[in-house]
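wait is this the right file?? whatever heres the structure
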């Protein structure tokens, strides 16, 4: 079954307009969700809203939205006022600049959409995608929909274009806000870490190599319940934090992957003369003791 378009818009830059169809790149429906049930009879529960002051249920038509500007103090907005505050949908993504793809930190990535050419847009679509691909740049602009305005990034992929919603700067925390201590790294540790990275390096990311084991386990448990089987919960051992030697952990990781830790070999060569000198001392003292007798 082919993908179904969820809408259409126009990508515009300069005097060029590209009509495109919009497709969701991800599937939220893949998430397993559970409903709240009444434990005694198994019926679905119905959600109700209660007034915190009067402790009575409030009907939907008696609800308004409010903003808390101070502790327990609100300003209220009617449905009409809320509607007036919404951004008017433009059905167009207006491109404002082109930047190197690597210049946009993935931490700003939000929802992604696939773009396909709409009627009459095949030629400009192909031209735009190829130009972005060969220039190694992406397009940044704005898109208004569902009452909100978004920053969007149109980037080329192997078979077409992806429109990536981006977060605003005030929606992303700076890594400088967290405490990361400055720590010295020894050359030997760094060499071993690089060897381990080299052993497990791939030329490209293949998402099919990763599967959701938790989802599979939940689906199996659900099916057992449907089939009337009892689920046995396995005891899980509590894991505590372990203090490990970083060099030994790196060496063990390399050996497990089938690689010879070069740094370890170099260090062991450097240590051998010292060990031989330590063993030589008892050999020299032994004849002296026998001579006293």
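ok assuming it is, sequence goes like this
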């Amino acid at each position: 079954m082919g993908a179904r378009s969820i809408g259409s818009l126009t990508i515009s830059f300069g005097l060029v307009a590209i009509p495109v169809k919009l497709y969701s790149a991800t599937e939220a429906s893949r998430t397993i969700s559970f409903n709240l049930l009444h434990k005694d009879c198994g019926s679905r529960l119905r959600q109700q809203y209660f007034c915190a002051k009067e402790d009575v249920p409030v009907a939907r038509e008696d609800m308004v939205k409010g903003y808390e500007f101070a502790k327990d103090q609100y300003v209220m907005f009617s449905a009409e006022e809320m509607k007036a505050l919404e951004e008017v949908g433009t059905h167009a993504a207006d491109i404002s600049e082109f930047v190197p793809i690597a210049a946009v930190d993935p931490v700003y990535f939000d929802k992604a959409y696939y773009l396909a050419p709409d009627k009459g847009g095949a030629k400009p679509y192909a031209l735009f995608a190829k130009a972005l691909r060969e220039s190694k740049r992406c397009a940044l602009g704005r898109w208004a929909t569902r009452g909100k305005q978004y920053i969007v990034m149109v980037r080329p992929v192997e078979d077409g274009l992806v429109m990536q919603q981006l977060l605003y700067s005030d929606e992303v925390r700076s890594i400088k806000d967290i405490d990361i201590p400055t720590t010295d790294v020894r050359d030997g540790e760094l060499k071993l870490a690089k060897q381990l990275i080299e052993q497990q390096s791939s030329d490209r990311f293949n998402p099919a190599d990763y599967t959701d084991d938790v989802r599979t386990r939940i689906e199996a448990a659900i099916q057992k319940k449907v089939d009337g089987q009892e689920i046995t919960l396995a005891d899980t051992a509590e894991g505590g934090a372990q203090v490990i030697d970083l060099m030994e952990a790196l060496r063990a990781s390399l050996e497990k992957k089938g690689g010879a830790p070069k740094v370890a070999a170099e260090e062991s060569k450097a240590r051998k003369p010292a060990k031989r000198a330590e063993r030589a001392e008892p050999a020299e003292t032994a004849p002296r003791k026998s001579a006293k007798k």
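Residues 28 and 111 are 11 Å apart (CA to CA). so i think its the right one actually
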